[in-house]
Queue: 3 jobs
Job 1
Amino acid sequence: MSDTVLSGWTPRSMRLGLYIHLPFCAKRCGYCSFNTAPYAPAAMGRFLAAVGAEIDLLAGTPWAASSTLATVFVGGGTPSLATEDELAALLDRLRRRFAVDAGAEITVECNPESVSRERLAGYRRAGVNRISLGVQSLDDTVLPALNRLHTAAEARRAFDAARAAGFDNVSADLIYGLPGLGQATWELTVRRLLEWEPDHLSAYALTLDEGSLWHAAGVRGLPLEEEVTAQYRALARRAGEAGYEHYEISNYARRGRRSAHNQIYWRAEEYLGLGPGACGFLGDVRYANVKPVDRYCALVESGRAPLASHESLTPRQRLAERLILGLRLRDGIPAEWLAERIGVEPGRLPALLDAWKERGLLIEDAGRVRLSEAGFLLSDALFVDLL
């Protein structure tokens, strides 16, 4: 595909999110299915130059000059392997080619072992205003089994370093349903993390997705489904008691600290993707970049867009995605969206949705429909029917 394809995809909105994928990792975690590559300083230099070239390609589209970036999220991989100077140069290049909101949320994912107060202070000077810290566990017997390179104490030092560097918006990630993770250990992890008073918390159940080492080789000691459910409930209860809003199935936030970037995804709004394997959504088109880092770099170095695939969503696909993504949020969706979906398939859905309402899983109020806390837990079953 050529860059002329991307030029023809006109956004519906001129306010966009931007995701930048930095794929390098010092070590790949067993559960990870993301697009990653081994870290080497020389590879980082070539890669960042290629991302700059992709920024220039996007900036050359007819709609770019009238677009504004409302959020920027640098994910990976391990983005915090980039030095403060490398990240500053990347963000400077972005600002020269695109309008970035003065109050844009700019997030960088960080691993505890790859940050220091100095590096984080450099990120802050470069314009980063939100840190997402990949804690995953606070049990030093669990962390090595995940192939994580930090200890629980190092995770705490990284969090404190972010605060010392001036960040007042710090998120932490956890995983539950891990091999060998008992209820008592999980509750202790949650309690200890909440004592840090992060501004945001993301907690995901372990999934053995295709592309992960554990999916290929298998893993022993996985907890039973009822144990995973108990860990989810314990997290929701303790986070609520600590004053966090459970605003999305897997996410909790203090007042005013929801993830602005991730809400773009959940509201089925538009965003650009930069880097190998990154995905974007413009107009009614979803697209993905090539995954191999060398292939990605070679394409943009030759002036070509690094696209691997794209698809135009049908009206029914768009409707289904709006429903499923929107119902992940505590805010829910406008009731008319659900009525529109029922109109597509009137025979089956009304009775199903009525049953969910009778069980207290789906709540309709003031013209909006949302899932209850119990509905969050069972949401996958409803989402399948809405598709």
Note: The first strand starts at residue 15 and ends at 22.
Job 2
Amino acid sequence: MERLTDHRIVLVTRRTRLEDLIRKFNTRAQARFYVEHLGADFDDYELEHQCYSAQRDICLAVLARLGNVSEIERSFLPNFLFRPDDTIVVLGQDGTVANTLKYLSGQPCLGVNPDPVRWDGVLLPFQAPELIEILPEVFAKRARLQAVTFAKATLNTGETLLGVNDLFIGPRSHTSARYQIRHDGKLETQSSSGIIVSTGLGSTGWLKSILQGATAIARAATSQAAPDPNTDLPWDHPQLVFTVREPFPSRSTQATLVYGTINERMPLSLVSTMASSGVIFSDGIEADFLNFNNGTQVTITVVPGAGSLVTR
């Protein structure tokens, strides 16, 4: 088959659990000893690795028939230079797609499910053999694209961080976060275990678990029925949702400004009063963070249409 594009196709992959263990323990035999010593099934690690490797090979073979291919492991994403005309294929899980999106600038991104039996794959609508059919549609700009809203944290130092699913603002470890929070003309001094800011894409993840837990606690504590929270928002929703985790009221701290929405006209602002260990990270990637210590100010805003996912 004649190649359909001179533009680059970037395949983003991830290490399997087995590869991570071998990196940690140096050999497969030592990795097996560690897993089996804990009573876990090492065969499952190997099966997952074999399946992922096989799907990776299929992806590379199909993509090579369509265009010029570059492969990158996801840990190198922060230092990879994407081109404006790149097409990105991500061999999942879902988190790998989200992590990839925040390093793009609107290039079409397509998620491939390496193991539909193992992973639900909300962001992975395609399987590897389907690339031969869907990518020509992408190149011809006939594929269905879904816009994705991002969250953006901007510090008074000029540093920024994007969140595709969510942002976490709080302590690095299991301690109290202390800060001033300003939203919709209200200002409070708070002590909590941190703040979650969720996008529409992330509304069925961390945000849902927090609200579900809060609802269940309220039911048990008050013996009153309460409806289950509906947090399922469209991926291009023009608003973000923030919630404060475990706010603690005291003589010097308040706990009323604990939930709300962020839009283009109404950002969320915080000033840290933590001496150390304050951080902001996104999408569960704790290694990629901003320091948020005493005096640091952060403004959380909406970035509509920042991502572009290929869907069915």
Note: The radius of gyration is 22 Å.
Job 3
Amino acid sequence: MAEGETADIYARHQALYDRVPVPAHVPPERVVDFDYLHPAGLEEGDVYTAWKRLHDGPDIVWTPCNGGHWIVTRGEDVRYVQENYEVFSHEVFSIPRGSSPIHMPPLTVDPPLHARYRAILNPFFTPSRVRTMREKAEELTRELIGRIKPAGRCEFVNDFARVMPVIMFLGIVDLPIDQREQFVEWGVTFMTSTDSREKLSAQEKVVAYLRQVLDERYADPGDDLLSKIAAWRDNPRFQGEYEMIGMAVLVFFGGLDTVANMLSFITRYLAQHPEARRRLIEEPDLIPKATEEFLRRFGLSNTGRLITRDFDYKGVSFRKDEMIMVPISLSSMDDRLYRCPMDIDLDRDPVHNTFGNGPHKCVGNALARAEIHVFLHEWLKALPDFRLDPDHPPVTHSGAVNGVNSLHLVWDV
């Protein structure tokens, strides 16, 4: 591809993020100037506080940022959109529309076709497999803590959060652990960069790498997930290479980012709340319930849906082909669902939307829970008195997945 043509592609992609005029059917009182990639207040250090400000306005709002889109801000409406795929389709999940050009089944496929792709993933997250992986996670976590502990400090994101769950994921897909840092770099760049050249370049590298791996696994299959995805070529319902590539890319990005960010948010909280650490140490049976509260409080994803037809809901007139954002973080902080939602209450037994609802509920939710359980058991046992490094405050980011860029911790040796 010629250099000028490549530059034009990047320019068109970057233009997707431009502001757009407010459509005539959107009432002025529902318009907010909210850029989910750079929300006002993020520079103060907490992505959730930046998002929480949307609760000061209408339950459903429209922003001209990033190509223009609706945002549901309350948990009830988040669940409604998640469950009603006939109107709010998963076929387009990235905002702005067109910013992620790869079709990624089963995420970008609505029922009933969604089930054919989901069936490839499900066997790798059965209870028996998760139990086996939990044992491996325990061993790996103890090993990593053993390396970190003598130094009296760490940068948690890169020293642990992007190591333990990522190595676990690489085992599922049988990719080389010694390339973990390269994989993470690609994944983080794609998930967080707002520069089209960087974002698309990272995606292109991932696609090229996975295409080669899928060809190799098709010729010489194993028992790993990528081998099963490669075998989709032989399924009578196979429609094209794009299906395999899309499934592989979805699995790749999903395995590198979400649990790492959840562990980092949990650890930031615990570093600031010694009373919570003490209680979890003294009452380890509380860890499963605490995990659900952490999952509730630190909802991560802010994905979109494509509106498939003109539709009226709670006084709002949606139009066909508009995009709507479903921020799990706002559902997590909804004071209509949770008393004192910004607080962590270890005695709360929350029902939450963090893993989604309906047919697109996260396939890896049981493994994510197991990895959090393991982390809390092992980390608190080995390092009960860690704290934030006052010279390096935490840095968070907002995007399709809320996350932590850096988290410096210290403890006495």
Note: The CA atoms of residues 52 and 411 lie 32 Å apart.
